[in-house]
Amino acid sequence: MKNFLLIFLPAIILLSCEKPNPGAQLKHLNGYWEIDRVEFSEDSVKDYSMSPYVDFLHLKDKRGFRKKVQPHFDGSFTNAGQTEEITAKTENDSLRLYYKTPYSSWKETVITAEAGKLSLINANGVIYHYNKYEPIDVTADEKEE
């Protein structure tokens, strides 16, 4: 029994410390993302209860774009900002997103990318937390009647 614990406990510790697979994270980036909160520091967090804009990310073969869009009640979107080119690269066991516009370029590191959650950190240490955008169903009341 002691031998079992000596092997089993370190294995669990190693597995729990495993970093996310950048390739697995990449497949979750596409779609509409709504900002949840921004952590400027440990003591400074801005919560967004509701934002009029969402970010649309589209990547194919590690290249794509991100743009801000404004959702409408009918399910359509209006472009609300400049389109940013994205190149995704795996560096130091992390997924990095390199952005480029005609005016600037920068990078962010993916902390978490799952089916419903996305967290990115920029070069200044600011962490952006997103939730997958879920459109408001304005026809729900009509269906109940």
Automatic annotation (TrEMBL):
Q: Which InterPro entries match?
A: Lipocalin-like
Question: By its UniProt entry, which PROSITE patterns does this protein fall under?
Answer: PROKAR_LIPOPROTEIN
Give residue ranges for domain Lipocalin-like: 29-120
Q: Which Pfam families match?
A: Lipocalin_4
Entry superkingdom: Bacteria
User: Know the name of this protein?
Assistant: Lipocalin-like domain-containing protein
- According to its UniProt entry, this protein's organism is Autumnicola musiva
